[in-house]
Amino acid sequence: MNPLLCESALPYGAPAFDLIEKSDYLPAFREAVARAEAEIQAITDNPEEPDFANTIEALEESGRDIDRVSGIFFNLTEACTDDEMDRIAEEVSPILTQHSLSVLLNEKLFARIKVVWNKRDGLKLDTEASKLLEDTWKTFSRHGANLPPDRKERFSKLSEELSLATLKFGQNVLAATNAFTLNLTDEESLDGLPGHVVETAEAEARSRGENGWTFTLNQPSFGPFMKYSSRRDLREKMWMAYNSKCIGGEYDNTQTVLKIVSLRAEKARQLGYPTYADYALEERMAKNPSTVEGFIDRLLEPSLPAARREVASIEEYAHTHGFEGSLMPWDFAYWAEKYRKEHFALDDELLKPYFRLEAVQAALFDLAGRLYGLKFRGLDGLPLYHPDVKVFEVTEESGRFMALLYIDCFPRASKRGGAWMTSFRDLSLHCGKEERPFISIVTNFTKPTGTTPSLLTFGEVTTLLHEFGHALHGILAEGRYRSLTGTSVVRDFVELPSQLMENWAYEPEFLKNFARHWQTGETIPMEYIDRIVSARNFLAGYSQVRQLQFALTDMAWHDTPDAPSDDVVMFEQEKLLPGALLPQIPGIAFSPSFNHIFSGGYAAGYYSYKWAEVLEADAFEWFLEKGIFSREAAGKFRKEILSRGGSVDADILYRNFRGRDPEPDALLRKLGLI
Predict the structure, then answer these.
(1) Would you tell me which of 38, 196, 307, 673 could form a disulfide with 668, CB atoms 3.0–4.6 Å apart?
(2) Global confidence as pTM
(3) What is the DSSP string of 45-70?
(4) 30 falls within a domain
(5) Which domain holds residue 34?
(6) 246 with 252: CB under 8 angstroms?
(7) What is d(CA 490, CA 132) in angstroms, rounded to the nearest whole number?
């Protein structure tokens, strides 16, 4: 009667978080793996001639219990973890890796897949079934199914070691983030900090049993401190702590970086690829490292001169206002914010009162209604994994149930930093019955206090729009096979729906619908909206170069036949030196805490954020042509992109939507760089 394995009696089969104990996870995983192994055994022992139904579809259907347990457990290790959950994850990870490899390296299973693959031309499969067959063949081939037995064993060992190393990397980043705090007890140390920042820091101190005000390395605390604190010495301390995470000390990740890179490179070589980047990119829109490098160069060429002009302008501004010496990394956000406030009469303090979290959330729901006909209704009776979480029923205008949407907004020590969308269950057909998805949005916005609601910065408004775009990709999914639905698309395509949604944050017609002062009820003045729009491309070159530097670093680690022998910090700094915009600080590197590429799924794929920006800039020009609330434009985007998942190659999906390939200059036009 393990609640993780039982069919939930809750509406829509929602997860029974209230019944799940930590002691349930390990037995559930073991039982789920045993069931999955029996399902695979049934496929390989089937005496009938291999065909699409008894082999490919049967394989797709197998392992549902593993997905059910994993969908809850691994999401909670990101959003609501503790030492016991981390310990379970370390024990479970090799079990799951070994099971996955036992499937992917199963010779009898692969022999059946090969039979079906070889007769594919005569099967008369529809588009979705053909894509499932093609993906199945490629997945097995790319995971060593064609390797001889001795190399399969080595490949299996590499995969297990890599799984543990990436898990440890992420755990170290979270632990290092939580390990540092800056507790201030002198009011003079708060100089320059807005009231809401001080109030939040006071609440943080109280929650820790400390006096005064406590600042952390979580973004809602770190970001405002770096923007507003006039205490340069404290900004330096915070910046150094943030940017030296996991370099040395108890949570050192430098050797883990080298281990992960080395393991990935060897896995690629085992499969006949020169580098891990060659291996990873083969299944993405970019296809190969040279395309990515050319793409980065094309964007970097006009961006780098613009970025250097922007930095020079900020430094000149700082000097005219009494700053002496060179502008250092811990100075840039502070002086850039002052420049922005003076030149655009715009700052977070001015705008935050108009962006109450609940109002922004309601506006997103309304936007989804106008574009896609969706309705959102809060559900009070469903169990949740944390008191901060809220859950919504999502339906179409016809009343058809589309999804459950969980929203978890506030930071806590048990949650990793940043913002993301995920799912507890993906769309699929099971025993002829459609199972709609359970989608989750997780963020780290400032918590409400006793006197102030949760007020978002404009950047956080765009963040929520971004993650809501991912959520719509999951909510509007259609299809038969869970491996091809929702956000199950290639990495450099997955950010298109999310980044597209950010554009509405700059549309006056959208902002005026909901942005009202939380105390007076006054609609945001048109003057403020004009400033938001005019400030949109402030530091566009700088921001673009920074993102491209992340992409360059990612490619430097993975477009190599083996891990560099250099020190991690030195290797990164050498790669970034040609595009450096501010002085490099000895001993500093972001690679040891770069979760996206060393713990997440963006290895040899960080460029995809910019790739998707090109897609979304080009796509939003279509919405501008048709109208930003156009059902026609949204309907075509839903039909050709959001509903299709990975059932068709991303290149084809985009051409079906836009009628042509995307134009890279669309992004440069949007940013004002050409």
Answers:
(1) 673
(2) 0.82
(3) T--SPP-IIIIIIHHHHTTHHHHHHH
(4) yes
(5) 23-146
(6) yes
(7) 14
